[in-house]
Write a structure and sequence with these properties.
36% of the residues lie in helices and 6% in strands. It has helices spanning 42-52, 60-67, 73-89, 96-105, 116-135, 148-158, 167-186, 195-198, 276-281, 303-306; strands spanning 200-203, 220-224, 243-246, 256-259, 285-286.
């Protein structure tokens, strides 16, 4: 295990400057023991860096760019370490050379329609399994902790000998297995790999989706998505933002809110999925506090009033 105080310092940001994205928000010198299933620091770190890079105030619509950000510092680091391991070996392998070159050139953006995010995701899965197997032989495939990324980065930065005698060899094995897995998924031509075909979102109504012939018209997807578990826009095949909100406390009517699908859970309603396109493309809607301009009204009548 990695001692808590040896994790990256940003994991425990200094008091008074906390940005939370499900990571541990307590400072390193917090005097009380705190337990929780926290996420790694990558998303909070990226949010802080983006907010710090801009001088002056932020407009609500500008905050959407932060919410949609899909840069993964962890995946970028893993890609560079894997490519460097291959280059240090001085190998020229017909299957691995294009993969290594792809990772070396990549900018860390987990974008759909590109190949590198898929390759580094498959590398991560192999490295995670290798680390878990070292900790508990034969149980590597069971390790899916959300802290795995931080553990792997710490191991690669410090490279303790009691984990792996040769970290480059471990990374090359992971790269080889990742290329194999990717070939099974999307063919042998890396240039045609598409992360979005792997990272897909499917939203199904649990009732009407089962209706023959028409059920599929009430579902959304599968659609390709950008993002990962370590990007601000946290999107995987198993999770995604349930809504986006920007609160302007100085002018509440300038605040923005966008639901994933729509305001109604009724499949026959016009509002069942009327916000989906805006959610997918990164647009949003003004919240109305001072003056409400309702486009429709839903009236609930108590049963007693009918009698």
């Amino acid at each position: 295990t990695i001692p808590f105080d040896e994790l990256p310092s940003v994991y425990n940001p200094p008091s008074g400057r906390v940005i939370t994205a499900n990571q541990n928000p307590f400072p390193a010198d917090y005097p009380y023991r705190v337990n929780g299933n926290f996420a790694p620091h990558y998303r909070a770190t990226q949010i802080r860096q983006m907010l710090s890079a801009k001088t002056g105030g932020w407009k609500p619509e500008e905050m959407l760019q932060v919410q949609k950000d899909v840069y993964s510092s962890f995946s970028h680091y893993l890609a560079k370490e894997t490519a460097a391991a291959y280059q240090r070996r001085g190998l020229r392998n017909e299957a691995l050379s294009p993969a290594s070159d792809l990772l070396a050139r990549w900018n860390g953006q987990m974008e759909k329609g590109t190949a590198a995010p898929l390759l580094v995701t498959l590398v991560f899965q192999q490295v995670r399994k290798a680390v878990a197997d070292r900790a508990s032989g034969g149980k590597g495939s069971l390790y899916e902790s959300q802290m795995a990324a931080s553990v792997i980065e710490q191991l690669l930065r410090t490279r303790p000998k009691d984990w792996f005698p040769d970290y480059d060899q471990m990374l090359l094995r992971a790269l080889m297995d990742a290329v194999r897995d990717g070939t099974k998924l999307q063919g042998s031509d890396l240039s045609k790999w598409d992360y979005g075909l792997y990272n897909q979102l499917l939203l199904r109504n649990p009732v009407v989706a089962e209706v023959p012939l028409v059920g599929r018209y009430f579902q959304i997807g599968p659609v390709p998505m950008s993002g990962s578990s370590t990007t601000v826009k946290q999107t995987t095949p198993r999770l995604g933002p349930s809504m986006r909100m920007v609160a302007d406390l100085a002018a509440l009517d300038q605040s923005l809110l966008n639901l994933t699908t729509g305001e109604s859970g009724q499949p026959l309603s016009s509002h069942y999925k009327d916000q989906w396109e805006s959610y997918y493309t990164g647009r949003s809607f003004r919240m109305q506090f001072g003056k409400i301009e309702a486009s429709g009204t839903l009236l609930f009548v108590p049963l007693e009033a009918k009698q």
